[in-house]
Amino acid sequence: MTDAVLKPTLIIRQFNQLTPYLDRFQDMKSLTENRDENTPDELWILQHHEVLTQGQAGKPEHILMPSNIPVVQTDRGGQVTWHGPGQLVAYFMFDLNRLGWNVRTLVSYAENLMIELLKKYGVEAYAKPDAPGVYVAERKIGSLGFKIRKGRSYHGLALNIDCDLFGFHTINPCGYAGLEMVRVMDLVPNYPHFNDLCTDIIETLNNSGYFNQVQVMQQ
After folding, report:
1. What is the pLDDT of residues 186-214, one digit of tens each?
2. Which contacts (CB < 8 Å, 24+ apart) does range 108-116 have?
3. 1: pLDDT confidence band, cut at 50, 70 and 90?
4. 30-47 in b/e burial notation, b at 16+ Cβ within 10 A?
């Protein structure tokens, strides 16, 4: 068998309208539960309506003040975080066994994807071994949390572009008291917008060498 036969297909879905968190959560969970060894991997790039999502072992005390932002209980790792307009979210429905990855490979890939995206626009970001995510001068710009089920991943990363930071002020982001969040718009004049970063991510996955074929679907 050739490499091309062994490598999976990747479907990238770019959602161009705000999309409800609960709908996508249920969809990615269903895809993961029902997939088999021949199912293509998928990457969804999108922005959510405003929501707080609580991790599987999330502690309620990390929600510091009541607000009108809905709270959704999820099954990903990590503590509470905020999603909303102006934040790019990418969900990875990958068959890790087929790719020859483990959880650490996936986490590093997601972190490095954000680091390389930011580098393109002159932002020096880095990961921390003890606190998953991506940081710029000790302020957090990108978060991540995954769920692995039978060697297959779902959930993913969130990168702050030009979102309102109020939602983060109502919580201890990812369970870290006093953690300051930062956005691309705070660091880059004429900063890239959601569609620009979608194009960058699609190009990166196309050139990654992990997939035989990459299909892009606009939703």
Report:
1. 999 999 999 999 999 999 999 999 999 99
2. 110/144, 110/146, 110/156, 110/157, 111/142, 111/144, 111/157, 113/157, 113/201, 113/204, 114/141, 114/142, 114/157, 114/159, 116/204
3. very low
4. ebbeebeeebbbbbbbbb
Interatomic CA distance for residues 84 and 141, integer angstroms: 14
Structure tokens at 51: 């929501």
* Sole residue written with tokens 């890939």: 109
For 166-177, b/e burial (b = at least 16 CB within 10 A) is: ebbebbbbbbee
Known catalytic residues are 174
User: Regarding beta strands 81-83 and 51-54, do their DSSP bridges make them parallel or antiparallel, or are they unpaired?
Assistant: antiparallel
Strand order in the sheet with 71-73: 71-73, 51-54, 81-83
pTM for the whole structure:
0.96
Say how far apart CA 51 and CA 85 lie, in whole Å.
10
